[in-house]
Every structure is written in structure tokens, then in C-alpha cells.
Please model this.
Amino acid sequence: MALRLITAGESHGPGLTCIVEGLPAGLELEQDAINRDMARRQLGHGRGGRMKIERDRADVTAGVRHGRTMGGPVALQIPNRDYGNWEERMNPWPVERSIPEVHLPRPGHADLVGTWKYRTGDVRNVLERASARETAARVAGGALAKAFLKAVGVEVRSHVTQITKVRAPARTTALTVEDFEGVDESPVRCLDAEASRAMVGEINVLRKQNESLGGTFEVIAFGLVPGLGSHISWEERLDGRIAMAMMSIQAMKGVGIGDGFDVAGVPGSQAHDEIFYDEERGYFRETNHSGGLEGGMTTGEPLVVRVAMKPIPTLTKPLRSVDIDTKEPAQALRERTDSCTVPAAGVVGEAMLAHVLADAYRTKFGGDHIDDVREAVRAYEERIGWRR
Ligand SMILES: Cc1cc2nc3c(=O)[nH]c(=O)nc-3n(C[C@H](O)[C@H](O)[C@H](O)COP(=O)(O)O)c2cc1C
Model:
């Protein structure tokens, strides 16, 4: 891996940290762009009380000077604004008061197995790190990857396509970057106004029934050069890397590239993207069933990733569980929770896709300074006759 992203931090601890290593020097960063993404992760109808407390901000504490990277690891710190209320319970150091343990593992969360594996009788030691609060750090790091991608002409966008049984209508034309302009104004980050209203209604109904909701979202990268990733080895196939990154997001249970699972149900003539050439455009396709990947490499078409999220495991009317101290039947922990975070998950998906793609650019083009990267990309585009 040429670009590494590492996060640290617990849900109610002092704060989260993200370190991104492998960015070239000279890359211009915008503080507002990082914090805008932090805020976008907090958007969405169906969030719980915590989002009102959070209002996240990422402070850069290393690797950047006067708005530009210097080539060293970039460190970002995101304070947990709720820590004031958790200072005793989550203090890194011993405290005087005895702190009650959590003994009620939630089905669908890391709670039960985590206590076995990490040899603890207190579910809090597991849930604090398993919580998707960690995605705030990924989004901060992903914003750096996005800045890098922007410098080489790539934009990453996302939108929600389904919340439980409400689906946005299938698109008849391919999406462009411009289509995403108002997406964050929809309370569910859906591009279709009618589906957006229906999704909000669905969340309201199920939330009242103490239910949680899952759904699907799509992340698309525009402006990629062909040839990122490789068919040469399984580890280098970009589809595999993307699936891993997406599935690593808490609660994601399925990933499809392009038509994804749907290709299994159509004959070959409808599954592939025929190849054309003309003097003006060079090589081109008229369809994008492959979602911009063939043989584990980008084709130069928009890269389309579809992701399915399960309903959130913490329920306001808890599921049946067992008290791990007494072994008696009990109700699962009822921690403050969101009911639907598919819109936010899309923003996390953008961060993860941006990271994988930025890594693929760093692997293919190297360069110690961002201008070295740009020159290498330009030379390659010229060699293969690629026209944007
Ligand atoms: C943006 C986001 C927010 C989430 N918020 C919650 C939450 O409030 N409550 C909860 O129980 N799970 C939430 N989850 C899901 C859990 O973190 C996840 O289900 C859990 O870590 C177990 O991992 P698994 O579902 O991948 O097995 C959220 C996930 C994402 C992506």
C-alpha cells in the first residue's frame, strides 16, 4: 500500500485520531473542505440525539504547513464533544468512583464476541471501539484523499438508493458530477425528490415502532484514468480492494460493482460494454454495466460501487439477549442510538473509495510532490491516447 490510513479512538473517549501516510508534498488542503465532509457525515433524517452534541471538527496537528502537505504523515484530531459527560467512565487513567460495567450484549453488534476475544467482562471495552463513531476519523482522512484526487481531476460522490423497502427509481441516463449538486439538501441524500419523501416517511413510521432501518447507497468516482489496479495478482485487483474497504465500514453487508448482483440474471450480450473508437473521442463505451472496472483495473468510465447496509443493531425496543454476568435472559443494551444512517454511510463510503483510489494513483504514478504526480499522469494519458 502506498497510502495508509489509520484511526484511533473510542466513541466516548477524549477524541479520535486519524493518520494518513503517503501523500505527496505540495498538495493543497482546505480546512473547510475537511470540516464540510465531517458535517456531511452527521446529516440525515433518522439520526439520534448524539448528532446534536457532536458538530465535528478535525484539527490538523502534523504534516501540513500553511495549507500544503510537506510529504510526512498528516495527523488529524477530532475531539469528542460529549467527553465532558463521560470523563469518569472513559478516563484513560484510574478514577476514584467505581464505574458500573455493561453486561447486556446487543445482537448484531461486536459486543458478545468482543468480550470473549478481548478477555473482558465489560461490554463497554468492546462497544466503544466497535461503534461507527470511528467513521468520523475515516471521513477526515478520506477528505485528504479527496483533495489528492481532485488535484488529478477525480471527483467522488454518493447518493442513497434505498431505505428498507423504498427504492429510488432506476436511472435511465448515466449520472454526472453536476447531478449531485443538491444531494445533501435531501434529508436522506437521495437524488429523486419523490423517493426522498417516501424514505423520510418510512423512517418516521418505523422509528415510531422502535425499529431501525438499513438500505443501499451508491458511490461514484468520475474522471479516473484507465489502468488503476491490476489483473496481475489478486491483491492488486481494484474491485477486491474496493469491496474490502466498503465491507470494512460498520454494518455494510453487500458490495456490487456496476450492475453487481444483477449481472447474474442477464445473458452476456446485456452484461458487457462494447468497445468503439472514433478519431475525435478515441476509444469509448456506450454503456457502463461493468461500473468502470474490467480485469481489476479502471476502464476510464465512472467507477460505480453499490453498497448494502443492514439495519442498525441498537434498538429502542431492545432484542432478547443474555446478561453475561448472571447468564440470565435479559434485554440488550439500550445506548443512545440512530435509527437510520444510510445517508451518513454514503459519506463514509465516499471517504473509503477516495482512499482506495488515491492509493491506486500513488502506487501507479509515485512522485514526491503533487506536480510530479500530475506530470506522470499527463505523460501516461498521452502515451495511451486517453482523452477526458
Ligand atoms: C454512519 C454509521 C452510524 C451508525 N450508528 C449506529 C448506531 O447509532 N447504533 C448502532 O447500534 N449501530 C450503528 N451503526 C452500525 C454498527 O456500528 C455496526 O452494526 C456494528 O459495529 C457491528 O458491525 P457489523 O454490523 O459490520 O457486524 C452505524 C454504522 C454507520 C456506518
